[in-house]
Write a structure and sequence with these properties.
The chain is of the alpha+beta class and about 525 residues long. It has three domains: about 30-205, Mog1/PsbP, alpha/beta/alpha sandwich (Protein Transport Mog1p, Chain A, 3-Layer(aba) Sandwich); about 215-395, Glutaredoxin (3-Layer(aba) Sandwich), CATH 3.40.30; about 395-530, no CATH class. The protein contains 18 helices and 19 strands. The strands form five sheets. The chain has a seven-stranded antiparallel beta sheet, with helices on both faces. Strands 13-14-15-17-16 form a five-stranded mixed beta sheet, sandwiched between helices. It is globular, with a radius of gyration of 26 Å.
Length: about 525
């Protein structure tokens, strides 16, 4: 995770393969019911999984995806992604009620304004949305509610290769409209087979009586009480999703494997205890105060105001220690749902300081649960340390290398034991043997772009992640393990780097101070010997 307001989402780079097969047309399923917010019901596709809104789309109520196969081939080349129609069902709201006077927080502040109608939403949110043609606009009534059916198609020379969007808009209240949208192949000769279930679901819309949300009102005065109530309110519109709690975490997931969820909570608390030892809150507060005192008179009023505004936005006026006991972890059951929610390509987890949630998926069907646990430890570190150090942005070797260091903790008999990170060890050991790595004096100054693979040495992101892990692992364990050529001056490198960065906010100064007086050639040779 990058502790910068300019880069709000951390990517743990992995190589993921798409093995998705063709999807089948949907069948009419059960009602989706909203009895806590807008008050409506409508049937959705049978067996499709609910993907909650991630917060960057102000119109989205929920999205539904096929369980496994999620696209239909419409082009002649099965290997061409452009010849695919990905199947989705979206529930949207167009809410014209006056906004609350309270300032927006979290993702809502960054999401921008909601779209005003279906056409505008499609233009922004679907492929070729700006090129859609309106083919059908037909008024009807549903449960005495005024409604309009729309059909949009992509304009292609051969309509067999087009995509179609079937949508219905329901005028639920004078200031609230609800919409149901489906994507499908646009071939006119086959359309009636898709239109039949879409029509049945769209005609099922009706009004529901609003009810109080169980757990939707804070029962206490703490920030944790407030967060719990907020989560319960959201989950009331996300059937299948549940909240689980531990001392420091809120875990939200649709997972039905209780043993997995309980182990996840145990692991989170155990690794959290290690973070607390390695990065105590008192030390962060000490650095912060020293840094503020040192910068007195140096910062302009505008810079001070910016920093204050940023801190208020992220912390909401809440003490960092309390924030750290309210960490939200969202766990999807599979990779497809994770990416549909917004998990970036080539990633297996991320921490968003804006949404204040860590997002991962259970990789049981892919690399295995061990990969899930590695990602969890890495991202949970970024989540924890953000609360105490805020929007500082360390170099990637420190930031990602430390995350991978915690990924190496091995779970045994309900406890963590530090081991080498199995993902990274093999990669860096081979690169060192082949003399294919970045010299350390250069590596510790690389920016994120270079670290992720855009560098003159043509080293990829995976290789640099491995080198970052190995450097952190060496500096943290080399002395204890009697590394060959260990110099006592290396003991303070990591501590000095973080202290100077936390106090000054200056990357170059942090590197200069951390490696001041260090024989970089001797350090590199000892690191290489330790890494092989």
């Amino acid at each position: 995770m990058i502790f910068s307001i300019r880069s709000l989402v951390h990517l743990l780079t992995l190589t993921l393969l798409c093995t998705t097969a063709f999807a089948q047309m949907p069948k009419v399923g059960n009602f989706y019911r909203d009895t806590s917010d807008l008050g409506f019901r409508v049937k959705v596709p049978d067996g499709w999984k609910l993907i909650p809104p991630s917060g960057d789309d102000q119109n989205l109520i929920a999205k539904f995806d096929p369980q496994v196969n999620n696209y239909v081939q419409i082009g002649s080349n099965p290997q061409d992604p452009a010849g695919r129609v990905f199947l989705n069902c979206w529930l949207l709201k167009f809410d014209r009620r006056p906004e609350p006077e309270a300032p927006k927080t979290g993702m809502a502040k960054f999401a921008g304004k909601p779209e005003k109608d279906i056409a505008a939403w499609l233009k922004k949110n679907v492929e070729q949305g700006s090129k859609l043609k309106l083919d059908v606009e037909k008024a009807f009534k549903c449960d005495k509610i005024e409604a309009i059916e729309y059909q949009f198609t992509t304009t292609t020379p051969d309509m067999k290769n087009s995509a179609r969007y079937y949508a219905c808009l329901y005028k639920l209240k004078p200031d609230i409209d609800v919409a149901l949208i489906f994507s499908a192949p646009g071939d006119p000769k086959k359309w009636n087979k898709w239109e039949t279930p879409f029509d049945a679901m769209s005609r099922s819309f009706g009004v529901e009586e609003l009810k109080a949300v169980a757990g939707g009102t804070a029962t206490g005065t703490t920030y944790r009480d407030k967060r719990r109530a907020e989560i319960n309110t959201k989950l009331a519109t996300q059937p299948g999703w549940k909240l689980y709690e531990s001392s420091n975490y809120f875990v939200v997931t649709p997972h039905t494997d209780r043993a997995f969820v309980q182990e996840l909570l145990q692991r989170l608390e155990a690794i959290h205890a290690i973070y607390v030892i390695d990065y105590p809150a008192a030390k962060a507060e000490e650095y912060k105060k020293i840094g503020e005192a040192a910068r007195t008179g140096e910062e302009s009023p505008e810079e001070k105001a910016r920093k204050k505004s940023e801190e208020e936005f992220f912390n909401e006026g809440v003490d960092s220690k309390e924030l750290a006991t309210c960490s939200i972890v969202r766990v999807f059951t599979d990779e497809g749902a994770y990416h549909s929610y917004g998990g970036p390509p080539s990633s297996a987890g991320y921490w968003s300081p804006v949404a204040k949630e860590l997002v991962i998926y259970d990789d049981q069907a892919g690399g295995g649960r061990n990969d899930t646990w590695l990602v969890l430890n890495h991202e949970a570190f970024h989540q924890y340390i953000f609360y105490f150090y805020g929007s500082i942005s360390p170099h990637s070797w420190y930031n990602e290398g430390t995350g991978d260091y915690y990924s190496g903790y091995f779970w045994k008999n309900g406890k963590f034991i530090l081991k080498e990170n199995s993902w990274r060890k093999t990669t860096i050991a081979g690169n060192v043997r082949e003399d294919n790595y970045c010299p350390l004096d250069v590596f510790v100054r690389w920016d994120q772009r270079q670290y992720y693979g855009t560098n003159d040495l043509q080293l990829g992101g995976g290789e640099n992640y491995a080198q970052g892990w190995s450097l952190i692992y060496f500096l943290r364990t080399g002395k204890k393990n009697n590394a060959k050529g260990w110099d006592p001056a290396w003991d303070a490198i990591l501590e000095t780097y973080l202290r100077v960065l936390a106090m000054s906010g200056k990357l170059d100064q942090a590197v200069d101070e951390a490696f001041k007086g260090i024989d970089m050639r001797a350090l590199e040779n000892a690191w290489k010997d330790y890494t092989r």
